[in-house]
TrEMBL record:
Keyword Membrane: yes
Transmembrane segments: 42-62, 82-103, 123-145, 157-181, 188-207, 244-264
Keyword Cell membrane assigned: yes
Name this protein carries in UniProt: Transport permease protein
PROSITE patterns reported for this sequence: ABC_TM2 (PS51012)
Signal sequence extent: none
Localization: Cell membrane; Membrane
Family from the record: Belongs to the ABC-2 integral membrane protein family.
Domain spans labelled ABC transmembrane type-2: 39-267
One Pfam family it belongs to: ABC2_membrane
Organism superkingdom: Bacteria
Alphabetical keyword list: Antibiotic resistance, Cell membrane, Membrane, Transmembrane, Transmembrane helix, Transport
Topology in membrane: Multi-pass membrane protein
Length: 267
């Protein structure tokens, strides 16, 4: 009776070590692959940063106080918040669905299911890499905006962090839902764009929410991007985000995440 007990206890650390080592190797491999994709890093990191600096420098009106915004300038909260959303949305609706669709088509997810690493770890690694990319993009936006354009830094750092985490998780949950239902890697890009651009519009990328008609702004309040952008702007300006916006983001995380888990196919 003692032998099985000693065997199970003795092998558990080995099994755990194999899985932990496999996860680290997987993380490093996927990170290298991510960095080797120039288009991915361009659209998630450098395009939003470039747009921030070019638009903020080239359009004088973006640097002038607006009385209707209480003296706030476009470069203070609106423009940097929208660039953060653009970066996160690109990862959520383009990078994540495309990568997972390719892995499914090539049988990588199925083969991982019989290894100690497992396909769930690959999914987790993908989310971690894209989360790190979102954090880097946000940091670059804040620092470059402050140094080059004299933009504000987030006045309510705590609420900014809460809004950022909720917004990223909400968009990633929708991205996982797209990855769950996309029929092929070729369709991933088209479906991602079909979802991303309307959501960016409703989030205020092209038309600030203040300029939206009441009906359109009401629709925006219940999308993942509208509350994300408004919560970022509110905390950036030093006010507490509206509870409705935070609740909507949490609802998107729950509903889209659970639906993605139910529909996701490993092969």
């Amino acid at each position: 009776m003692a032998t099985p007990v000693r065997s199970s206890i003795g092998t558990a650390p080995v099994r755990h070590g194999v899985r932990a080592g496999g996860t680290r190797k997987l993380l490093l491999t996927e990170a290298r692959l991510y960095l080797r994709e120039p288009m991915t890093t361009f659209f998630t990191l450098f395009l939003p940063l470039g747009l921030l600096l070019v638009l903020g420098s080239a359009i004088p009106g973006f640097r002038e106080p607006l009385p209707e915004w209480g003296g706030e300038r476009v470069v203070d909260t609106q423009l940097p918040a929208m660039m953060i959303i653009l970066s996160v949305a690109t990862s959520a609706f383009s990078a994540i669905p495309a990568a997972l669709a390719v892995y499914r088509e090539r049988g990588i997810l199925r083969r991982l299911s019989v290894t100690p690493v497992g396909p769930v770890r690959l999914l987790g690694v993908q989310l971690v890499i894209n989360l790190v990319s979102a954090v880097v993009a946000a940091a670059l936006t804040i620092v470059a905006g402050r140094l080059v354009l004299g933009s504000q830094v987030p006045a309510q750092l705590g609420w900014f962090a809460v809004s950022f985490v909720l917004g990223v998780c909400a968009l990633f949950a929708v991205g996982l839902l797209l990855a769950a239902i996309v029929p092929s890697s070729r369709a991933a890009g088209g479906l991602g764009a079909l979802v991303m651009f309307p959501l960016l519009f409703l989030g205020g990328l092209w038309l600030p929410r203040e300029a939206m008609p009441d009906a359109l702004r009401a629709v925006s309040d219940f999308t993942p991007t509208g509350p994300f952008g408004q919560a970022l702007r509110d905390s950036w300006a030093g006010t507490t985000p509206e509870p409705l916006h935070l609740a909507v983001l949490a609802a998107w995380i729950l509903i889209a995440g659970l639906t993605a888990a139910r529909l996701f196919r490993w092969e």
